[in-house]
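STRUCTURE:
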């Protein structure tokens, strides 16, 4: 991918990832509770992703204001079915996530809007993990939510010719009652 048609200048890895977001159409995921978990969240799910572009939400946190001055963001509206391990029936799920390229172009912020746009919860900034390759990203810092720590890694998945098929987003949630691993597989 290049910055302009015919240009030889490559996009930065984070901008390449941001451009890929608009192509995502489906997701599959699994959740696994570890030995220290007091939750029974192990299960599998799948669904559709509707992607839209929206004007940027004004920051709720003054410390984040400088990093959030961009014109638009990509919103994932996710809906599908989730089945807990050992259960015979599934339940409907829906989520709303906002992906936002930071003004400096160095990170991609992810927020969860489960309770609406005005109650968005910042999860983390993903930054390029150059030590692992240009298609690898990691949360800049783990996000603390009450007593739980959320961290993530993301890898762009490509076919044998180098075309992006989507990405894998793996979450790790640890805390006094949580020991969870979530593996999301987003595909075009």
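SEQUENCE:
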């Amino acid at each position: 991918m290049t910055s302009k048609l015919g240009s030889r200048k490559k996009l930065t890895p984070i901008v390449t990832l941001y451009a890929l977001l608009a192509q995502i159409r489906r997701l599959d995921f699994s959740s696994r509770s570890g030995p220290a978990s007091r939750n029974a969240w192990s299960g599998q799910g799948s669904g559709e992703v509707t992607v839209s572009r929206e004007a940027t939400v004004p920051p709720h946190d003054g410390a984040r204001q400088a990093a959030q001055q961009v014109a638009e963001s990509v919103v994932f509206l996710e809906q599908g079915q989730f089945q807990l391990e050992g259960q015979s029936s599934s339940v409907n799920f829906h989520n709303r996530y906002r992906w936002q390229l930071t003004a400096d172009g160095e990170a991609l912020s992810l927020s969860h809007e489960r309770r609406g746009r005005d109650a968005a919860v910042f999860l983390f900034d993903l930054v390029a993990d150059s030590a692992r390759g240009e298609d690898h990203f990691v949360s800049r810092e783990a996000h603390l939510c009450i007593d739980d720590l959320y961290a993530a890694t993301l890898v762009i998945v490509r076919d044998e010719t180098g075309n992006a098929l989507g990405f894998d987003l793996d979450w790790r949630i640890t805390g006094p009652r949580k020991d969870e691993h979530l593996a999301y597989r987003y595909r075009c």
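REMARK: The longest strand covers residues 43-55.
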